[in-house]
Amino acid sequence: DVKVTQSSRYLVKRTGEKVFLECVQDMDHENMFWYRQDPGLGLRLIYFSYDVKMKEKGDIPEGYSVSREKKERFSLILESASTNQTSMYLCASSLSGSLANYGYTFGSGTRLTVV
Amino acid sequence: QKEVEQDPGPLSVPEGAIVSLNCTYSNSAFQYFMWYRQYSRKGPELLMYTYSSGNKEDGRFTAQVDKSSKYISLFIRDSQPSDSATYLCAMKMDSWGKLQFGAGTQVVVTP
User: Do residue A108 and residue B32 have CB atoms under 8 angstroms apart?
Assistant: First the structure.
């Protein structure tokens, strides 16, 4: 069974901490994505990557950075966590181009609370 | 105006009823359409994908696309309590495969 694995289900961090969220996929997918999901706001794209070492800003990149050193791993970094970054974070992956017509595979999500 | 509009619900139906979910979109360039189901505190999972206008059926689920009206629907027949979840529509935005999501509709099926 294909999988996208997020390293933590729940995280509690303090304001100002540097936070790393890890995501690994075993499907040899080219594309990887980071979203945050908040009640009433739906899924908002933070960053995406369509190849190793490539990254593109999404709709809400401020306060975040990403790293993709290997094809299977895409990390989201909160440089200095703030309370307004408390959210559910979802990683997803997909094939590229016409094969992306079959959509994303999502991880189970990381619920991050910043106190 | 959002590119994809979806009523957030909640939509409450009795067990056995037909659930009808809808999304409208504004970008006529969208060509590939998906429905995801998300249980509480889980990631979304792909239910169905479709390309052309018309119907696509998979068991109790039917996806319908009307490109001329920029309107997509998902029907769930003989609904079960296990269908209680949030349903998100999604559309492929670009050649890379980036998706535009609706906000999701919460469905509650009561026994």
Answer: no
In terms of Cα–Cα distance, which of A40, A42, A29 is closest to A92? A29
Chain A nearest CA to B87, separation (Å): 11
Tell me what the pLDDT averaged over chain A comes to: 93
Residues 6+ apart with CB under 8 A from A98: none
The tokens for A69 are 């050193």
User: CA–CA separation, A33 vs A47, rounded Å?
Assistant: 6
Given a contact cutoff of 8 angstroms between Cβ atoms, the answer to whether B14 and B109 are in contact is: yes
Tokens of A41: 């706001």
In Å, how far is B7's CA from the nearest CA of chain A?
11
The 10 Å CB-count burial string (b at 16+, else e) for B66-76 is ebeebebbbbb
Judge: A103–B43 Cβ closer than 8 Å, yes or no.
no
Residue identified by tokens 């105006």 is B1
Q: Is the pLDDT reported for residue B2 higher than 80?
A: no
- Report whether pLDDT(B40) > 80: yes
**Residues in Cβ contact with B5 at an 8 Å cutoff, skipping those fewer than 6 apart:** B23, B24, B25, B102
| Alpha helix positions (H), B1-111 | none
